[in-house]
Amino acid sequence: MAESACLSTMHEWESPDYEPSLPVSEKSNPLTRDIDRASANCIVRMLQACDAQMFQEETGATYQRLLSKQVVETLMEVAKKVEHILKDPQDSVVVLSGCGTSGRLAFLITSTFNRALRELNQSSIYSYIIAGGDRALLSSQEAPEDDPKQGMLSLKKVCEGKKQVLFIGISCGLSAPFVVGQLDLCLQHPEVYTPVLVGFNPTHQARDESIPGCTFTFRSVAQRMQELTKSQKAFLINPAVGPEAISGSSRMKGGSATKILLEVILSAAHAATFTNTPITYKGILQHMRAYKKTLDVTFAQKEGISALLEAAGKSLQCGRRVCYLGWGSLATLGLIDASECIPTFGADYEDVRGFINGGYRELNNYEGPLGPDFCIAHEDFLHLVLPFLNDQDIVLLIYTHSDDVSEVAKLARRVREKTSNLHAVYHRVDGDTAAAVQQEDINKLCLSSLKITWSSPASGILAHLQWELSTKLLLNTVSTGAHVLKGKIYQNYMIDVQVTNSKLYCRATRLLQKLSGCPESQCEEALLKTIYRVDKLTADITSSDIATHTRTARNRTKVVPLALVCLLTGCSLMEAETHLEQQPIVREAVEACLS
Ligand code: F1P
User: Fold this and answer.
1) Residue 574 sits in a domain of what CATH number?
2) I want to staple 400 with a disulfide (CB 3.0 to 4.6 A). Which of 26, 85, 427, 513 is the partner?
3) What is the dihedral of CA 308, 313, 318, 322, to 10 degrees?
4) Do 512 and 552 reside in the same domain of the chain?
5) What residues does the SIS domain cover (predicted)?
6) Percent of the chain with pLDDT over 90
7) Atom 14 of ligand 1, residue of closest alpha carbon
8) What atom of ligand 1 comes closest to residue 140's alpha carbon?
9) Which residues of the chain are modeled with pLDDT < 70?
């Protein structure tokens, strides 16, 4: 009985009657309705169940899934296009592009596969584009996401002089104007560009709002591409992976599924080119299943993850910090996870921070060091952060046994001088005892050590990709859960979201409608009042466009929570501010206002 109830909750979102006006990527997940009141243990279980939805089989005609026949076949076709370029790379490039998390993953994946090419003495063929440039790798630069022209120009720039371009545009919600500007450019020049769109909604759910200065919408471009898939002049990879655990938080499943799909494509193309392994349906499916296993292996450590989540939640609750000290590409995932907490939860820059051994040299981004606002090396941590830490700040070491474990031990000792709240997560291959002694030292210094053991992998690169996904899942769980415990989530909505681009502006208005029951016009009015900090809207404000509103909102905090309190109680902005100061947990503040 309990099991069938649970099963129906797993699939409830697939019903055509479930939140019909919203695309899958924006729906609220029935599995996490009460996540804001759950214990650390329960939060981990809920997030695991949501992640598991990625690999559910197709149940009917409603949605294609990750393992659906058509998706696997498209992955094969795109892999063959990449193989073609790998075999004749001159004047060709494969570009991966996206906004926010999607752009960060484009960076991570291109870095991995260019490195693999370098190791084979081959020239690099992959380039990444992220809306807002490299600063967006480490911070939210959401305004450029709304600019299709900037997208198009940045694509033209990386493709200068190229005769053949495979363009992979990633937009989890099929919504970013920056990406659709690039796709439109590709469609205008089919002799050079072959476009691939990756996202997690069916095309009829792609965003259809008009884009200032454009004659197309995301939906119209996606539909044009759909037509071209028949002749393989364009490709669509858009399975549904179920609603995010925190509504709209596409950094979670959207990001994970992006990583899985693109790595499957590129790995298959590399194997076909360099080890004579043909691209087969079975091979692609097998690789996908290895990622499913990654979820199982990671969440087998539920208790350890819950303990970390609880400890991180405690630090955030008392206004202290969470620091990730990572090595290699796992550190990059730490940097990414930390940077996303700012726009997702309205967190402070100092709340969750990531650091990488070797700093920018190791990150190897196009623009190199990004200046004093973005200090990311372990040395920066030692100089700028460590002196101010105490036992309430949590430090998490993230590494694998193929990193220099004696370096990890050395850093652990330094950290231990300032805080006992030190934890470790590390990956090792079963039977590998190389770093056993240093690991023992580290274990003694840490309050908890989470050891994730993997059976000997078929190839070195696959092992690394699995460790990365595992780290992503774990860090997303810890940082999301810690912010839930801090009271940043209302039911399963990120109510304290920054309203910094048009997608987020629309989401904020919709959220206010849902939670207050007031009509759309009244909700938008309340939102504008809190953005401009006025109790009465002026003609100047109401005649401005969304770009002006979102620019102004950049410097504001608690926009949506304040608007909600105003709507529900009819109080002034100042009174709403006082309510929220007294009760920072949004759900409780709202309930206190109503009682
Ligand atoms: C891009 C994105 C997200 C971010 C936020 C704003 O979304 O930057 O990564 O978390 O929601 O939008 P998408 O184009 O991949 O849907």
Assistant:
1) 1.10.8.1080
2) 427
3) 60
4) yes
5) 82-275, 312-488
6) 84
7) 171
8) 8
9) 1-8, 61, 457-459, 594-595
Determine the Cα–Cα distance for residues 505 and 510; give it in Å rounded to an integer: 9
Cα 452 to Cα 108: distance, rounded to the nearest angstrom: 22
Atom from ligand 1 closest to the CA of residue 250: 10
Give the pocket of ligand 1 (CB within 6 Å): 98-102, 142, 145, 171-173, 175-176, 250-251, 254, 503
Q: DSSP assignment of 321-359, as one string? A: -EEEEE-HHHHHHHHHHHHHHHHHH---TTTEEEEETTH
What is the 503 CA–ligand 1 centroid distance (Å)? 9
Ligand 1 centroid to Cα of residue 523, in Å, is 23
Q: What is the whole-number distance in angstroms between the Cα of residue 504 and the centre of ligand 1?
A: 9
Q: Which amino acid is at 349?
A: Y
Question: The domain spanning residue 145 has which CATH number?
Answer: 3.40.50.10490
- 413 in the same domain as 274: no
- Measured in Å, residue 223 CA sits from the centre of ligand 1 at 21
**Could you tell me if residue 11 is inside a domain?**
no
The verdict on 485 and 511 lying in the same domain is: no
Residues 75 and 182 both lie in one domain: yes
Ligand 1 probe mutation, 108, 170, 172, most atoms within 8 A of CB: 172
Please state whether the predicted TM-score (pTM) of the whole model is above 0.90: yes
| Tens of pLDDT, residues 224-267 | 999 999 999 999 999 999 999 999 999 999 999 999 999 999 99
Cβ-based neighbours of 17, under 8 Å, separated by 6 or more? none
> Model confidence over 162-211: pLDDT tens digits?
999 999 999 999 999 999 999 999 999 999 999 999 999 999 999 999 99
Q: How many domains, the chain?
A: 3
